[in-house]
Fold each of these.
Amino acid sequence: MDLTLLVIQCLNGLQLGILLFLLASGLTLTFGIMDLVNLAHASLYMVGAFICASLTFATGSFVWGVVLALPLTGLVGYALERGVIRHLYTRNHLDHVLATFGLILIFDTLAHLIWGAEGIAVPLPGFLDGQVELAAGIVFPTFRLVIIVGGLLVAGGLYGLVNHTRLGMLIRAGASNRTMVSALGIDIQTLFALVFALGAVLAGLAGMLIAPITEASIGMGNEIIITAFVVIIVGGIGSMRGAFLAAMLIGLIDTLGRSYIDDLFKAVMSAAAAETAAPAVSAMLIYILMAVVLTFRPQGLFPPKVR
Amino acid sequence: MAVSRSTGSSRQAGIPLTALATLGVLVALAVIPPLLQAAGQEFYLTVATRLVCLAIAAVSLNLILGYGGMVSFGHAAYIGIGAYAVGIPVHHETYGDWDLVASYSGFFHILLAVAVSALFALVTGALSLRTKGVYFIMITMAFSQMAFFLFVSMETYGGDDGLVIDTPSEFPGVDLGDPLSLYFVCYGVLLAAVYLVHRLVNSRFGMVIRGAMGNDARMKAVGFNTYVYRLTAYVISGAMCGLAGALLGNFTTFISPEMIDWTRSGELMFMVILGGAGTLAGPVAGAISFIVLEEVLKHFTIYWHLPFGVLLVLTVLFFRGGIMGMVRSLEERWRG
């Protein structure tokens, strides 16, 4: 086995894991605190990518695009919470799924109306577009490395925010007992709106980071949101630490599965059989993992300590 | 005593409005599409055939969602399985290989669709039903994603691009290639499905799953193994939905993994909720409204998903109980 390739694939897995974490952390916040299943998180991911694409062309710089698009995506999230989402808190999960599925249809069509049916490729500035040699023979695209490092910084920041600030304290308190927090005089409505906006910013950031690699396109979030849900379920719903660890795990399993299951299968069965089975199994791998986890540890691998 | 007598007598005052609505929906489906076909509007018959196939799927989902409280977010998987249970045998009968499953026989297709769907439901249901709430929603979705990727990766059957069903299922005396015959076959299956669900939910079995939806702990305390009852309902529902898929495959003559996309499962859920979950005719009424609305909006704009999405959100927020719920409250207002 080629060691260089393995290292690079691990880095790719890590990069996918980071993106998944950015999405899953928002889901964790909204699910853990508001008990809300939000499929429309996928739309915020897409909206972030599109706003960033437009701003990149307007300002001529991807970096400015991201910096300006982040608060705008947060604003979209805030408006969404005020307009629709807050009416869902008292409803059951089925209603959440259906209403936010409706929101996906609305956002996808709005994106179609505003940005057109074609995807938008986002150009990277020169200093991000190249490759770096990490060690002898290990060459990795600079931008993907930026995603990994940036994502880890965001994860660290989020950890600090949740565990060591007043807002974080309110978030944790809201997660364990909503009624008590509001009884203590905290404006729970505003807190929820802020938390939702924060989740929107994180989802938007993920969209902005992936846009230069793929492109900003309609429905771009509809596939990865499902993976993000797999992440929070495997990690244990409501646990930020669980979301992070599960995101890394799933990013790595998915990436390594796609590159190595082929070889693994060829070792134990005929080449022809491996050829057919490998793609199927590697695509299903994370769902198999989720089914196994739910069967043997329904509360997830790293459930939150509270509740 | 007096109270119970008065409600009793008001019930007997005539045929309940909900029953009338149920009958009306089913009769309308029997009469209107063939009449339109006779009037030369063949397009409407194809819309109606798709509608009836999806109505069967919605009826099957309603059995577990509406009466059992099991929110399956992966029911489109069974539609896909059913459709491929027609496509794969036809493919092999036409192009060779795999003699064991190669067949044009409709009975074989139906048997395969129902058996494989039931098996898939048994295995995934046995695991899924160990979980509750949002976990159940997500694990059923995960299993349907597995089915999705399984069909995507099967290159022999077209993978992503899908599979053309060259010839419809063959039944003695019935030609499914004829649009009107196909429609009536689908309609007959829909009637049978509605009747089956009606008998099931009003039987002892149905009372147990409805009881378990209301209060699982209490049903267990009374001595019912609710897990087994739920699993049985889940398998019946999956098999029924597989049958709907086999019919849909015959109708579209082109099948692809896209039929299993999670958004399809979401649409099925919407049909059930729109019509009224836990009512007999609700899913049928929901499927009719869904498809008719879709066709009308498509006619006016390519951006039809926008009003459709708005309607979905509004339905969830303000139209609780769905169409049949509205009928029921009308009935209550009438009777005082």
Amino acid sequence: MEPLMLALGWIGLYAPLALGAVGSMIGCARAGGAACGALLEVESGYGRFIGVAAMPSSQTIYGIVVTMALRRELTVDNSAGIFGLGLLAGIAMLYGAIAQGDACAVSINASKSKPEVFGISLAPAALVEGFCVFAFVFALVLSAGIPK
Amino acid sequence: MAADTSYITLIASLPYLPPFEKAERVPITRLKLEQRLNMLVHEHAVQLAKAEALVTWRMSLAKPKNDAEMVARYRVLLQAVNHPVLREFIAFRIDQQTVLAALRMRKAGQDVTTFEPIAHASRWAGFIISHWEDADFKLSFMYPWLPEARTLLEANDARGLDRLLMTTVWQQLSRISDSNSFGFEAVFAFVFKWDILQAWFARNPSQATNRFQEMIKEVRNEH
């Protein structure tokens, strides 16, 4: 039983970073694909499209911080808590990054034809970011309750 | 948004198509469109080409000898298209064309037996034949545009009828595009909308003249 618990603890410890990174890869690839397509169509403003395409990378940073906050000597007592917290935070980051990538792609597609909507079209991506921040902050708060 | 996002780059590289009646020009040339469509996977490219041969506004197929040959062509080409949404769109257009053919034949005083050879292309064949004497073949519940189309046809308003049919297809394509904004659906919806836009300009001599004069001005300014 003890090795299994410790294995789950390790999974939970690394999950926020790993899942966040996977989400960022997919999200950035989708938004980046849209940015590359838009570059073929527009004559200027290339930089802002590429900048928007990088938005889904923040989930990896949140994942790194949560992993560091969860980092401690793994025991049977704290492994279950680390597993639960880490895995759920990781899933939130994973899905958040993918959803943000899609929102960024839509924003890029809309603003390439109508540059004046560039700012407002980023609102859905910003909302997704907000939910990721909630998941991130509360993962940090709750990690303080896991035994050292 | 659907999970299939393999065409994000392709969709993002296509310009915005304004509603065809408000457009001042076709925003992308066929050559450029073809270049962008090179991003399609082979299977989708083949299916799109077959669908274009079937239901573009100006069909690229050589003119068939008779109606029966036309229906046979439809059937052969339709078998080669297996994308469900594209098939559904083709069926929608074929139904639309069949209903119009029935209206035209009836207006010309032709009998239902004349219509029967072409009827089998459509899902509503039996229904139209059964209700040949009814003003809208009792299909207006299915096609709300049908009474207006009949009125325009009877008034010999070809341009008005074109506008109505194009609007109907345009709206259908917008719905298809919205169902998967970064998938194959959005790509073929763009291509068929572009086709409508192109056909609209081709039938509008004043806009064509304006465009020609604009091009002359552009050339003069450049040289």
